[in-house]
Amino acid sequence: MTGIKFKHSLLCTTQGGIYLETNYRIAYDKGWDDLKQKTPEDIASTMDVTYLSDKQQFIVPYLNENYIADCIKQTIHKEADGTVPGIGAAILILHYLTFFQTETALVNKWVSLKEIPNGGMLFYPAFHKESIVGLIKAFGHQPSLLLECAKQIGGQPARFGDASAVFKVFPKIPLCVVIWEGDEEIAANATVLFDPSIEHLLHIESVIGLGGYLANKLIKLAAPETRRGHEIW
């Protein structure tokens, strides 16, 4: 398995709590194995992260927070308070550190998931159902709320739609969320946009996971009492 599956159904609940199914654990363990195959200094320079050679730790900026990837303990935690991210977020961090093959620059244009090669078009219907619909429900009739929520996680206002914001999710990966307001005659709409360079930085399933992570984060900020599925992020 090279990427994370986009379905929350990979988690199951029992009387004993929430258990991760095999696919997530395989992806997580493989991420650490892949990390061992790369030169830390190459990762740091190529992906714009910091490597502390004395501690064998990477400091990875991830949506307005720094995370520590400890190569000795094979653990990931938030630098500020030690919080451990959900398994999905941890896998995305590992994939960001390991998937790249060569130095890649931003193209500085925006495209939808459907335009990302190697499966974007195929996965788009599921992405729309799991993430875009939630954005429409949360912000489609109150687009200004997007800007309020975006500000809390480092988003900067953009000039698309009725409200939009750009997020530096990883140092080399920006995402843009756009909302079009609906009324009695026109349905509200939303989208998540990517820089085309992302195809060289993440596997397509991780591209989808990253877009879903950002959407889910914004939706929860808009309605913090609402929990969407299990906490894998």
In short:
With 233 residues, the chain is α+β, with helices and mostly antiparallel strands. The chain has six helices and ten strands.
Structural class: alpha+beta
The description of the largest β-sheet is: 4 strands, antiparallel
For the largest beta sheet, what order do the strands appear in spatially?
3-4-5-6
The percent range for helix content is 25-40%
Which fold name is given in CATH as the topology of the largest domain?
A: TATA-Binding Protein
Q: Give, in order, the helices and strands.
A: EEHHEEEEHHHEEEEH
Number of strands: 10
Our count of domains comes out at 2
How would you describe this structure in keywords?
233 residues, TATA-Binding Protein, 2 domains, 6 helices, 36% helix, globular, disordered N terminus, DUF3786 domain-containing protein, DUF3786
Q: Which SSEs are present, and which pair or pack?
A:
Layout: E1 11-14, E2 17-20, H1 22-36, H2 40-47, E3 50-52, E4 57-61, E5 66-70, E6 75-78, H3 87-98, H4 120-139, H5 144-152, E7 156-157, E8 163-170, E9 173-180, E10 189-194, H6 204-222
Can you offer a commentary on this structure?
Pfam families: DUF3786. InterPro entries: DUF3786. Residues 40-216 form the DUF3786 domain. This is DUF3786 domain-containing protein. It comes from Sporomusa malonica. By secondary structure, this protein is α+β, with helices and mostly antiparallel strands. It folds into 2 domains: 8-98, no CATH class; 113-222, TATA-Binding Protein, CATH 3.30.310. 36% of the residues lie in helices and 21% in strands. It is built from 6 helices and 10 strands; from the N terminus they run ββααββββαααββββα. It has helices at residues 22-36, 40-47, 87-98, 120-139, 144-152, 204-222; strands at residues 11-14, 17-20, 50-52, 57-61, 66-70, 75-78, 156-157, 163-170, 173-180, 189-194. Strands 3-4-5-6 form a 4-stranded antiparallel β-sheet, covered by helices on one side. The chain has a 4-stranded antiparallel β-sheet with strand order 7-8-9-10, covered by helices on one side. The radius of gyration is 18 Å and the shape is globular.
